[in-house]
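Example 898, ligand adenosine-5'-triphosphate.
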Amino acid sequence: MRAKAAGMHSKDCVKVAVRVRPFNKDSHFFLFPFKSYLNPPIVWFCPSLTLLPPPPERGDAGSRCIVSMVTSSITIQDPRESQSRRSFCFDYAYWSHSGFTRDRGGLYVPEEPGGRYSDQDSVFQDLGEGVLENALQGYNATLLAYGQTGSGKSYSMVGYGPNKGLVPKLCDRLFHHRENRTPGVFFSMLEIYNEQVVDLLSRGSRTPGGLRVREEQQRGFYVEGLRTVPCDSAPQVEQLMDSRSHMLIILQLKQIFSKESITKQSNINLVDLAGSERQRSSGSEADRLKEGTAINLSLTTLGNVISSLADVAVGKKVVHIPYRDSVLTKLLQSALGGNSRTVMIATLSPADICYEESLSTLRYAERAKRIQNRAVVNESPTERLVKELKAENARLLQRLSRLGQEGRRANDETKELRQLLTHNELQIRAIQTLWEQHLQEALKDWEQQYANITQERRMMQMHPYILNINEDTQLSGVVKLFIQEGEWDIGLCDSTPRYISIKGLGIQERHAVFRNEQRRVTLTPLAGSKVIVNGNSISQTTELQHLDRLILGSNCTYLFIGFPSERGGDDWSRYDYDYFQSELAAAEGIHLGESSAGSSQTDPSLLAVFYDFIKLMPMVAEANQMSQELNKDVEFKLEIKNLALSDSKGHDLKKEIVIIVTAVGRKQVWMWSKTKFVNRKFLMEDAYQLHQAEKSRDNIAEGLSTAVLPRDKDPFWDPVEPLLLGSAHLWLQSLAFRIPLEEQLEVLGSEGTEEAILQAQLVPCTSTGLAQGEDDILIDPSELLGRRLDFQLVLEQCCGLRWIREARDRGVQIGFRLFDCSHPFYSPAVWHNVNPLLDHRVHFASLHTSQRLLDYLQSSAVVLELWGLQEGCTDLVSSGGSEDDCRGHLHHRGGRSS
Ligand SMILES: Nc1ncnc2c1ncn2[C@@H]1O[C@H](COP(=O)(O)OP(=O)(O)OP(=O)(O)O)[C@@H](O)[C@H]1O
């Protein structure tokens, strides 16, 4: 169904469309919240490294559709309250949830002709064609996709496989359209991360601190030094575009109409925003360096700008539109309330579990449709100059003819007029020649590119080669390095004739040697360099087989393509980036999937963790490499947290990836979350780039310089803090019978390692703390109901503390929570001792034992947490001191050493 509400807005209002996607079969990418992990070609492994079939459908399975559409209005129902529904009306509403089928070519089309399903074509006809037409007329045009992660933004904007989205369709049409106009399409692409602009076409040479956003009166905000490449075909744009995490693609159209002697220049901005929910969710994690906040700044500010503009549209007084508050809104200034024709597509998940998000997207969209833009056809200053010169010449000619009629053809004035005319003509011609030269240069560039492609094809038919494998599948295979006959060094250096030059973290000047002799290719690592073949590190000459996987340095990944005779018709696509990383993980003993009894069911949370693990592995390798080169003395290691731990009811805790950070010399340890690590890594790259720039400028000897950063800005550093080492369960059931309990508990680390043995007791006692005897034991716990219960928790001793054994200048504390006491309790810190006496006793009392407390005692454990202290960090203290803190249910008397 494609519904249009005719003539609802004046033509310069932002056009808003909503689209609701089908239920999803797989939602694994929700678990790793980066745009980069869209549509992951995931690989499931069992311990023997055989590929397993994908896990059963999850994602939206079991969800209910809460969205309905009638013509251009859309209604969403609150899944918790059947009476509560909200309706919205937009310029277009696309039903892509049901009523579709997949045709032979893999296209999703309506089940029957004229069916309600909106396919990619119909969306393009409504939205894409208009955007293109506007741009061809010389207006700036913006296409903006907004919506929750996984709601279908990329599907609508870019598309998947044969189901091409708006951007590729727009490009097809653009290059098709252009025939009778002088070509001039220029492409740039950027990402905004942490309020820094990253040029995605100049990945190899990232500018520390990002590119600068400047403002000019004529141009508005623009990115200084952003790479722009000329394009002349849709596939070329597609190849450039299908990159990870792009946020803003700018297609610059420069058209010359030679007959009319006019040129038009316009921009098409294509904006694929990060999941809208990230505005809220990722702000929850505070980091000292505040990256989280900056990531969200763009989206939050976009929301504020849209709100303010919507207020302006309904006549409210708005003092200021906060465009300047974020990079994204600066760059979208003309798209929102400025000189642009703008279309926004708001994408929705149909599922009940996404209700809050979908409602918030609809609210956003509703505000956006009120925004009014003031689009004008763009004339560049040169354009205006040509026009002005022509107009002036027309005036001069008129004046001349008038003088002629008056019989004054050869006086000083006519001479001056003629001179001016010639001068203007020359200027016009010069401007036009310059413009044509510019286009000629672009044409020359394209010719060169085609010549390169032909040459490359010829080489592929003759020699073995290595093919780059990128995290983004579209960028894989872009680099082909041919191994011609003889011996070839591979590495950073490109000064010798027989050299294959590569760049990357951890790549040495001379990294390894390829030998292509007698139709065999071998690879020999050179001293100190990292080379991994099929997941295993090699140090000796190794013969390569067709489709071997190579990792050079920290993370330069290549697929080896053998001689043409070996190639056959094999499908190389399975050897994607994830395959490489999974193979590495397998070599480290990280597998996934239980192959037991033919079952391929994998715990979904483990699947997510495994997926995170292989995604983070190369980043950790890079962080380690940077740390080493910057002399930071810090090591990063991936760990699966809570692999072996459970909660107070014995249920497994959610497993997640953490990054253990160790300052090796100082033996200090931190535990970082995935988000924190990813943010920090970005800052580490900055520090690293700075260092590289400094090194090449000052020619500093390797290893002598560290990036000079004040400590509080150093991404490799953090203040020391207590670290949760592990936990043990002390089950409380005996208290319900007033039976004393003495236990030797194994404190397990989060991955299942034994961190210590903890001796603890539960002692039922009188109100004055005297231990009760056998006579007080209860047969039936319900006898406690309504009566007073006193008991003491005694932490006696810790034995065999691994934490202290590793470094003597450390200490430990035990922390725990009980029933409904809001704050945790901590034993006093003990230092420097592998078997410290804790001798810590806390008295608890319930004045009227409730059924709830009784249930708690019978079914729960107190989780005793072992906290590691390091030199320089402050002890953990029990925050509540008074008896009232336990809300009258369970009182305690402050912990004391007996
Ligand atoms: N209209 C549609 N028809 C068929 N499938 C769709 C449609 N919209 C989305 N999908 C499918 O839903 C899944 C999620 O969509 P998509 O990747 O486009 O989400 P997204 O909003 O771009 O997510 P993210 O914010 O993570 O980038 C994909 O598998 C996609 O193929």
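Summary: The first helix runs from residue 120 to 136.
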